[in-house]
Amino acid sequence: MRWLVRRLVGDADRRAIENDLRELYELKRRDDGAAAADRWLRQQEQAYGRHLLADRVASAFQPRSGIMSHFWRDLRHSVRSLVRVPALAATIVLTVGIGLGATTAMLGVVQAVLVNPLPYADADSLYWIYTDNAPFRFRFSVVDYRALEADHPSFSAVAAYQTSRATLRDADTAEEIAVRSVTGSYFPLLGQKPAVGRLFDDTDDKGGDRIAVLTHAFWMNRFGGDASIVGRTVSLDETPHTVVGVLEPAVGPFEQNTAVFTAERWPEPRRKGPFLTMAIGRLEPGVTPAAATETLHATNRRLFPIWKSSYQDEKATWGVQDLKSRVVGDIGPTLLLVLAAVACVLLIACANAINLLVARGLQRSRELAIRGALGASRGRLLQQVLMESATLAVAAALVGLAVAAGALQLVRAFGDNNIPRLAEIGLSGSTLAWLVALTVAAGAMIGVVPALHSSRLRMDDALRSGTRSTTDGPTARRVRRGLVAVEFALATPLIVAAVLVLVSLDRLNRVPVGVDTARIITGAVVLNGPRYTEGDQRAAFWRTATERLAALPGVESAA
User: Fold this and answer.
1) Are 163 and 216 in contact (CB under 8 A)?
2) What is the tens place of the pLDDT at every residue in 407-427?
3) With contact defined as beta carbons under 8 Å apart, do 220 and 170 qualify?
4) To pair with 472 at 20 to 30 A between CA atoms, which of 224, 265, 387, 557?
5) Collapsed DSSP state (helix, strand, coil) of residue 500
6) H or E element: which one contains 403?
7) Beta strand 211-214 with 155-169: parallel, antiparallel or unpaired?
8) Cα(432)–Cα(434) distance, rounded to whole angstroms?
């Protein structure tokens, strides 16, 4: 500590310090004894070094300009002032924080689902090619896709897939999984890359061995990320498939909830149907969707007479829709409605915070008047009140960050069957940018009105009167009544809409479906593969299954 003192102060100051300590030591020794004086001196020497070091560090970071000096001073004063009113501060931080978090989460969902492009190469040029039989749009048949594959002048590439369920079996377990049978052009069209091994290409459409590509999530969950899976054989519906690769981790909505991709081995069609084939294409540069539609109509007109015996609807033709609209569907209005609702919650929270801060400003009007009488300008008083609002807004933003993260996790956990592009929803950089922007806007809202109201108080009236007469002034009453009116105007439609939704759901749950569902449980088994190709094999399975289920303890009957 003595070495520290020598480094931190000059020789003259150090000698003055030592002389002062020596005089005080002698006084302490005479009054309390040598032992007490020695202890005191050691404490002083240790404390002095620490205090000097802390002072130098604080001086190094102390702002030199007047504005920044006022800023840090007001920040410390704001924190101390808010600590003295914990109930008010906690109310504002929690209510505004919940509003910020909910609004940020919904903005993140809306941006991920409705605004961001699909996570594929040049996604804006990808289109769904469908059978158009107004007002219905449905998929292609294999006949349609083969004709499109042979003649697609408006598209640089086309691809197709069919989705099904299959049983993946190994030595110990059998598991039903989602399988997507794709053409060799599927992965190149979407611009996807392998994590391990390779993906399919056009050469895989020519037949040959049965091959498969695993999705990254299924590879990790089922095979523990074992890279040696490439080259091994897996059984899908009793048919062996050789694994040639694993898809990259970042996948889009087309790969969501899919476990395995297989190279298509669709049998040669004998009729036009069934319509189970999803066709997608990439428009040639400079070709408009309208021009592409004309070429598709021409191809369909040439195809129709060939297969007229199996499909006789002359009104049906082909059409295109951008792939993003196809994926998103009609979820947009619902998401925007929920976003508007949580934005109203944020506005209600801000109005409530403004009301509380105006009331607090009126209660502390005497304090502000004294500061003004001592020389504080209106700008300095305004800066102090704004600093308190900014401090509350920053604390609310931290609460909002936690609320937004939790809300997005809930959306991902429970939105699987209702929200498309679910895998792309998360706490991203753009979501954090929304939180910052909302925090700035909320901080301005809850800061400007109380600050202007507090800075306009007449010092002479505030000093002569107590807080009661100032609080009951006509201006304060008008401001607070207006804020209460705003809160009611925002809250009333939300409450009405919430009650209507709850009543509607309750009535839907009470609608009789014509079946007595009490004490009934259901299960599903899909009999795929060569073991159950014949009807008697399937009938024998169900007969044995129902007999064994009926024999289980607690089962009254089975069907």
Assistant:
1) no
2) 999 998 888 778 888 888 988
3) no
4) 387
5) helix
6) helix 378-414
7) unpaired
8) 5
